[in-house]
Amino acid sequence: MDWTQLPLGPLATNCYVLSHKTECIIFDPGSEGEALAEWLDGNALKPLAILLTHAHFDHIGAVEHIRQTFNSPVYIHKSEEQWLGNPELNGSSRFGMGAISAPPADFILEKEEELIIGPFQFKLFHTPGHSPGSISYYFEEGGSLFAGDTLFMGSIGRTDLPGGNHQDLLDSIHNRLLSLPEETIVLPGHGPATSIANEMDSNPFLNGF
């Protein structure tokens, strides 16, 4: 199984495509829906699902285009199930990006459990702090973590948006993410990939953990 990082939109939000043969999972299709669909077609990939790490506008802008084009169901955490259709909650109305919205998700995630979709299996970690419904998807087979805007190379997610909480974010990182194997690749919502080991050693926001 292979993953591909595709920075999309004006904020270069990372969309990830995790693929196996002709099937794939899409994480956070934030913008440029037509271009993303063309890339998927060009690589002969069929998305089995759209998994959202959270519902800020820069992570959801192409959700509906991909859902309608490929008939792919959308998964989101219960704490943000209303955010897709509400530009105030998803932040698009606050940042002058135009109103971004989508119909409700097809599946609501509540528990920290295993999620199996076709040949793909993930462990779900509820990692609030950047937003109340942030989810990190741990793909154990591939030694990788789709972390959204929770943890970045040398940084952590911002917590000054509605529903953000700095201490909750630090607790999420410490209790959920730093307990993963140190070689785990962290695939963040913006910027380059990193690893749990790198962030434990050098991330200035995690000093003192």
Q: How do the strands line up in the largest sheet?
A: 1-2-3-4-5-6
The secondary-structure class comes to alpha/beta
CATH architecture label name: 4-Layer Sandwich
What count of helical segments does DSSP give?
6
What gap, in angstroms, lies between the N and C termini? 33 Å
DSSP strand count? 14
**Biggest sheet character:** 6 strands, mixed
**Remind me, CATH topology?**
Metallo-beta-lactamase, Chain A
Task: Describe what this molecule looks like in 3D.
It is globular, with a radius of gyration of 16 Å. The strands form three sheets. It has a six-stranded mixed beta sheet. A six-stranded mixed beta sheet has the order 7-8-9-10-13-14. The longest helix is centred in the last third of the chain and has 12 residues, at 166-177. The protein has helices spanning 33-42, 57-60, 63-70, 87-90, 166-177, 196-202, and strands at 2-8, 13-20, 23-27, 46-51, 74-77, 107-109, 114-117, 120-126, 135-139, 144-148, 151-152, 155-156, 185-188, 194-195. Helix 1 packs parallel to helix 3. A hairpin with a 2-residue loop joins strand 7 and strand 8. It has a single domain (2-206), classed as Ribonuclease Z/Hydroxyacylglutathione hydrolase-like (Metallo-beta-lactamase, Chain A), CATH 3.60.15. It is an alpha/beta fold. This is Metallo-beta-lactamase domain-containing protein. Keywords: Hydrolase, Metal-binding, Zinc.
